[in-house]
Amino acid sequence: MPQIIPKAWKSAGTNGMLSGASPVVWMPPHADVGGGLSFGDGCKSGGGGEGHPSVEMLALLWRRLAAVSPGSLVKFEGWPLLPVITAQGRALAPLGAPVVMPDGLSMEVVNALRRAGVFVLDIASPAAVAAGKHPAIKAHVLPASGAGLLVWSCRLTVSKPIFKAYTVSEL
Fold first, then answer.
1. pTM of the full predicted structure?
2. H or E stretch covering 141
3. What residues does each domain of the chain span?
C-alpha cells in the first residue's frame, strides 16, 4: 500500500479514532481527468502533489482490492482511499470513517453532513466509482438516509455525539 498511498497518510488526522477523522488533501497529477459533477472541488487546476496517487491509480487500486479482498476491507481501515466532497478541493477519507452516498443530496445537506463529521462520497471521481463496485463497500459507505446516518452514529465511539442538539437561536 505505501507504494501507492504515502505511508504518512495512514490514519492521518484520526488521532487513532476514525470517528474523528479528517480527510487528507488529495492533489492527483492531471486532476482534470474524470469530469462529471463534483460539488465545488475546483479540481480543474491540474498539477499534483508529490507522492499523491493519480485518479487512475486509485481506481486501479480499488479494482485490485475487489479481486484480492472481496469479502472485507477491514485490514485497509485507516488508509485514505475514499474520494469525498470537500469545500477545499479533492480529498480522501480514511476507510472506516463515516462516509455516505450522495444520492439526492442538496448542497445544503452535504454542508450539514460535513459539519457533523460525515463525509459524502464524490461519485464524479472514477476512483469513487471503482470503490463503489467493491463487494464489501456497503459496510463502509452507507446510504445518506436516516437509517444510514443512524448506523454511523451508533458505530462512532467519540466523547461527543455526532449530532448536536441546536437551540432555535443557533439555527
1. 0.75
2. strand 141-142
3. 7-170
